[in-house]
Amino acid sequence: EKIERELENYKGKYEETKKLLSSSRDKNKKKSGKLEEKCKTLKLSLDECRARCASLEVSLSTSKSKCNVKEQKCEELGSSLHTCKIKLAQIKRMNEDCQNQNLRQFEIKSCELEKKLKE
């Protein structure tokens, strides 16, 4: 009977943790959604910048110095985009790891308690 109570209690905690994980997952989805938007915006800016650069290069040779400044801006945007993608991948990986690890711990403990109950 004591083990049955412990198992019920544990199952309650398991369900509670699943809810918390779900909430955490939603928050992380929002974060990664915002980061994805930021990445898209940066990519658009980068593409626009490269296009402007290309058109400046084609124009008069006096525009060459302007283009060099634009190329530097393009490189900075490219770097920001790369950093953004890395952050996004890290958040997604941490979110998956967290979910998997927590659920695995609960499954192991539940299994142990059910074994005890059968004994």
Largest sheet: none
Q: Please report which band the strand proportion falls in: under 5%, 5-15%, 15-25%, 25-35%, 35-45% or over 45%.
A: under 5%
Given the C-alpha coordinates, what overall shape results?
rod-shaped
Secondary structure: helix percent: over 70%
Number of strands: 0
Distance between the termini: 12 Å
Report the mean per-residue pLDDT as an integer: 76
Number of domains: 1
Poorly predicted regions: none
- What is the succession of H and E elements? HH
Descriptors:
single chain; 119 residues; mainly alpha; 2 helices; rod-shaped
Structure notes:
The chain has two helices and no strands. The protein has one domain. Helix content is 94%, strand content 0%. It is rod-shaped and about 85 Å long. The protein has 119 residues and is an all-alpha fold.
Topology:
Blueprint: H1 2-58, H2 64-118
Summed up:
The chain has 119 residues and is mostly helical. 94% of the residues lie in helices and 0% in strands.
